[in-house]
Amino acid sequence: MRSRIFRKAAALILLAAVPVLMAGTTGKIAGTVADKETGEPFVGANVMIVGTTQGAASDANGNYTILYVPPGLYSVQVTAMGYAKITVSDVRVFIDQTTPVDFSLETQAVAGEAVSIVAERAVMKKDVATSVAVVSATEIRELPKATVQEIVQLNAGVQEGLTIRGGGADEALFQVDGITLRDPRNNQPITGIPLSAIREVSLERGGFSAEYGQVRSGVIKLVTQEGEKDSYYATLTAKASPPQAKHFGMSVFDPNSMWMRHYLDEKDDVCWLGTTKWDPYTQAQYPPFDG
């Protein structure tokens, strides 16, 4: 009996934690449904994301909200008895942001009548108080970059080494699907994620909410792709670099290099008697050598 109660309690705790785990990885679609002729709010209209099971019904004020929508492009459809079906395409959903989609229903004049609309991106997002930059999977494929760090560094206010607004990488927060990836030894983010596995990258450079801890300079949120049910795909990345020296600085074969000079310096008999023949200043620049 005790084990059964324990299992039920653990299941309830897990179900309660699901919305928390979804934070930072999904967005939402919200808006209003109204009658086009009267302008009155429409109650009970069904709003669905085409190709998914996610949707909502408009309430007494004509408002609806679809939660936990993964980032990406969608088509949103509204249906109601006696009214023409309306589909809004190219609806872009961002991480931790609300995408507004409003509908005005027209009386159905012909059976099966449908209206298609292309969504317009809002110039100003009312629900965003932070400085947010978003890079989609399509943009990542077109960019000549090979790492997540290079993608993030394309944004204003980010310098090499993930220095965001003057703060080092150890002061930033890097999350993949809501999970923080950070090296506990030096607090550096672990960014070794293949670009082909990324659905969207979001960068918040300031003004982020209190839900994020141990962060000072910026929040980098990454959502990964999901596999297809009926197909396979792969990505092949090839890199090439022009011919160049295999060393930096002085060559190891240079007569004055710290690897060769001991054996070649016959002027002071160093090659025979060792580095004690040199003055203290020169000895400090080279490893000791007995001859």
Question: What features would you describe in this structure?
Answer:
The chain has 291 residues and is an alpha/beta fold. The protein is built from 6 helices and 16 strands. About 3% of the residues have low confidence.
Strand and helix map with partners:
Blueprint: H1 2-22, E1 27-35, E2 46-49, E3 55-57, E4 63-69, E5 72-79, E6 85-93, E7 98-100, E8 103-105, E9 114-118, E10 132-136, H2 137-142, H3 148-152, E11 158-159, E12 163-164, E13 173-176, E14 179-180, E15 198-204, E16 219-224, H4 261-264, H5 270-273, H6 280-285
Parallel strand pairs: 1-7, 1-8, 6-9, 13-16
Antiparallel strand pairs: 1-4, 2-3, 2-5, 5-6, 10-15, 11-12, 13-14, 15-16
According to DSSP, the number of beta strands is 16
Structural shape: elongated
CATH topology label of the largest domain? Immunoglobulin-like
Poorly predicted runs of 5 or more residues: 14-21
How does the helix and strand content classify structurally? alpha/beta
Order of helices and strands: HEEEEEEEEEEHHEEEEEEHHH
Q: Major beta sheet, specifics?
A: 5 strands, mixed
Radius of gyration, in Å, reads 30 Å
| Sheet with most strands: strand arrangement | 3-2-5-6-9
Total of DSSP H or I helical runs spanning 4+ residues: 6
CATH architecture of the largest domain: Sandwich
First-last Cα distance = 82 Å
In CATH's first tier, which class of the largest domain applies? Mainly Beta
The pLDDT mean sits at 82
* Portion of residues within helices: 10-25%
Strand content: 25-35%
Number of domains: 3
CATH superfamily of the largest domain: Carboxypeptidase-like, regulatory domain
